[in-house]
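Recap from last week: sequence in, structure out.
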Amino acid sequence: MTAPDAMAAMRRPMADTATRHVRWRSAADGRVVVITLDRPDRKNPLTFESYAELRDRFRDLAYASDVRAVVLTGSGGNFCSGGDVFEIIEPLTRMDVPSLLAFTRMTGDLVKAMRACPQPIIAAVDGACAGAGAILAMAADLRLATPAARTAFLFTRVGLAGCDMGACAILPRLVGQGRAAELLYTGRSFDAAEGERWGFWNRLVPANELETEAVALAESLARGPAFAHAMTKTMLQQEWSVGIEQAIEMEAQAQALCMQTRDFRRAFEAFAARQVPVFEGD
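Predicted structure tokens:
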């Protein structure tokens, strides 16, 4: 088997992936996956198992041959209330340091997997969005919310540092250093209007249109150039920690690679023929 054949063999359909601890469904002919946190009676808290499953599925999406965008949402009028008090928080009070470090690294690995997966992730948030739930929204690429969304990075309110799962690195880039410091020090909640004003939410939509709007946005991205979107996401992530000269060189290399894709050629040919380009992700 040649190297290209071997790499192609690693890719596989993921639209119909079976999951145990979150709900997974496909939309837009398998190009979009909707992942739903589905414990509505408790406002969709995370457990050890759902953390691990989300981490593993986002890692796997790097090898998806079909999925081009992801929607992450919650059921029952809430997004996610954070870690389950009785299934996570209480056991943590009895663990030794090595076990605690294994847990905190696993939760951080979920954010790493979300940032590393090539597909754009859209968080669709209603109601409670607290603790680790706020982190999941923060780690997405785009965020839609309803007017009822209430968000809190409440770690200091339970005796923990605000620097959880990348919050001190990512949140300032979304809302600014001063605003991030306020939210992480105080643990206070902010409503949807304040979140939109500060730039945390891309836009607000009515609750009865939330998932429809999120899927429509995901589908519009899924129709776009998948390789170029993946490269854009990679550069947004990697350029946080480099100077402007290095960033410009990185972008020169990234753009040269995109110019080698068939999608780039298709876009030119469609433009020349005064047609709308149809991207195929290669």
